[in-house]
UniProtKB/TrEMBL annotation:
<dbReference type="GO" id="GO:0008745">
    <property type="term" value="F:N-acetylmuramoyl-L-alanine amidase activity"/>
</dbReference>
<dbReference type="Pfam" id="PF01510">
    <property type="entry name" value="Amidase_2"/>
</dbReference>
<dbReference type="InterPro" id="IPR036505">
    <property type="entry name" value="Amidase/PGRP_sf"/>
</dbReference>
<dbReference type="GO" id="GO:0009253">
    <property type="term" value="P:peptidoglycan catabolic process"/>
</dbReference>
<protein>
    <submittedName>
        <fullName>Lysozyme</fullName>
    </submittedName>
</protein>
<feature type="domain" description="N-acetylmuramoyl-L-alanine amidase">
    <location>
        <begin position="3"/>
        <end position="137"/>
    </location>
</feature>
<dbReference type="InterPro" id="IPR002502">
    <property type="entry name" value="Amidase_domain"/>
</dbReference>
Length: 152
């Protein structure tokens, strides 16, 4: 068990407007290669659907620790100290990075992050791209946090 240090925001890197299911994510992450990545666990705790629904993918007791059964595979080197969340989307039709969050996703993400920050004010909230050379989550998390009133 480790102290929770990061909330990492991801995108599914799928085209704008395409819904993603929990089953899709499980298949992408846990199926053996070459169909999937062959991981023991998915990469995210929660999935933000296009309509703003938030679906829990991995059980979490919401405390300030990352228990072994809560570890997801979102960012190499950070998994044991992070919670990872993901929104469906993040690419345009040609698969280039684009902030494709719907109004409902933006609102659901805003509520989730504000609640999370209230409960865990010392946890750093970052985009995946702040931990690895990636475009994910296809928007500037630091600027967005300021917009919603979170200073880190």
């Amino acid at each position: 068990m480790a102290k929770l240090q990061y909330l990492v925001i991801h995108c599914t890197a799928t085209p704008e407007g395409r819904e993603v299911s929990a089953a899709d994510i499980r298949r992408w992450h846990t199926s053996p290669a070459p169909a999937g990545r062959g991981w023991k666990q998915v990469g995210y705790t929660d999935l933000f659907h296009l309509d703003g629904r938030v679906e829990r993918l991995v059980a979490n007791n919401e405390d300030a620790n990352v228990d072994p059964w809560e570890i997801t595979n979102g960012a190499a080197g950070y998994n044991s100290i992070s919670r990872h969340i993901v929104y469906a989307g993040g690419c345009d039709a040609s698969m280039k990075p684009k902030d494709t969050r719907t109004a409902a996703q933006k609102e659901a993400l805003r509520k989730y992050v504000l609640d999370f920050h209230t409960r865990h004010p010392s946890v750093k909230i970052v985009g995946h791209n702040q931990l690895a050379a990636k475009a994910c989550p296809s928007f500037d998390v630091a600027a967005w946090l300021l917009e919603i009133g979170i200073k880190q």
